[in-house]
Specification:
With 302 residues, this protein is mainly α. Helices cover 81% and strands 0% of the residues.
Length: 302
Amino acid sequence: MKNPVLTRSLKLIFLFGILITVVLLLNDNFSFNYTLWGAQDTPTQVSQVDQKVEESSSASSSFLTVAFRGGPIVFSVLLILIVLSILSWAVFISKLIFLKNTYIQNDEFVSTFWKSRSLNDLNATINKITPSPMRELFCTGYNEILKCSSIKDSSNISQQVLLSSSMERIERSLYKTKITEKSKLEKNLSWLSISASTAPFIGLFGTVWGIMGSFEGIALTGSASLAAVAPGISEALTATSFGLAAAIPAVIGYNISNTRIKKIMIQLEGFSSDFLNIIERYFVTDKDKSKDKKEEQQDSAE
């Protein structure tokens, strides 16, 4: 079942990131034309080295202009990294909000659970409680109690065997629910993992490709001066900076999210243990009542 809050947050943050990127691309200092790709080779009176230095200095006011001078391959790499960066931030922020709300909702349910007079009373008002992993865990355990109780009433199995089998069934059901809830909590974390592991290498690919172009320029001009090499290398290194910009928030978001998920799972484990203790006491008490009832029947028969 999809979480509408998480999905809506992801869409809003992703659209906001795209809007910021578009605003930067449409900045007046960003002059995007065919000369950025080297498509126009008009003759000039200055040397190719001086022309390269002049273009680099004239574009220094726009970081994106310098970035896109690396050619179509570097440009494509930068686009991929921009998308990964926006996606990483979107997943990071929305996941933190979602996990924080989930932790608070679990605390609220635990408080309501211990204030309830009985499991039946809590189950009667369960629909009024905010959905949370803890609520799902309770609903699973309660439904399993009802099933085990119906089996107990319709079978001639000994109370000890019935108690043992019932507790095992309930414990397995709770374990399955915890796994399901954990998978929901970890949803979209794979995007952070992918961005964190691939973005630096994608940026490195763009850098290597740009540096290869710089060396080709050196071979054509026959000049290995700093003025000839520096502009091309700076443009190529832009891809690495974009890769790090995409990977760093992804790594931070992944680690923080995992830490918060572990805290939530500790909540569920603690509640599961308390719930099982309550259920076991319920079955033991019910067993004692049945035993006393049988003894009273025997006494009355005598």
